[in-house]
Amino acid sequence: MEFIKREKDLQDAKLLSPLVWAYVGDSVFELYVRTKLINNSNAKPHKLHIESIKYVKAKSQADILKRITDKLTDEERDVVRRGRNTENHHVAKNSNVADYSQSTAFEALIGYLYLTKQDERLEEILNMCIEDK
């Protein structure tokens, strides 16, 4: 049973803006990281938060994307390219434009896979993100 209904059909999900993919991907990745941390630790929330920042900040996501790019399919690389090239008028205060652009591309990929219900592939990529860190 699907916990959260993803009601958009495949074609509609593919036509969403890369910034919408990134918006969803940000949440999916953060939830994945937090869940992974609590499954492997009994630390207090503050320590969990400090540890999660190591993965979810723009620089870390940009580095993750660099590490996994050669393992992506052509379709996934196209999603990354679209996410990176999308005009975004916001840059996080602790980031530079290049890292923020790459992190948006990474989040777009995660959101795209989630919204197009490619759960097995999403899990493979999420596991790649954490295993090498």
Descriptors:
133 residues; mainly alpha; Ribonuclease iii, N-terminal Endonuclease Domain, Chain A; globular
Strand and helix layout:
Blueprint: H1 10-14, H2 18-39, H3 45-56, H4 58-68, H5 74-85, H6 97-115, H7 119-131
Helix pairs in contact: 2-3, 2-6, 4-6, 5-6
What does this structure look like?
This protein has 7 helices and no strands. The protein is mainly alpha-helical. It has a single domain, classed as Orthogonal Bundle (Ribonuclease iii, N-terminal Endonuclease Domain, Chain A). It is globular, with a radius of gyration of 14 Å. It starts with 9 loop residues before the first helix and ends with a helix.
Compressed to H and E, one letter per element, the order equals HHHHHHH
Compute the number of strand runs: 0
- Structural class of the secondary structure composition? mainly alpha
Number of domains: 1
**Which CATH architecture?**
Orthogonal Bundle
What is the CA-atom radius of gyration, in angstroms? 14 Å
Main sheet attributes: strand count, strand direction, barrel closure: none
Predict the CATH topology: Ribonuclease iii, N-terminal Endonuclease Domain, Chain A
The CATH superfamily is Ribonuclease III domain
Shape category: globular
**Which strand-content bin applies to the residues?**
under 5%
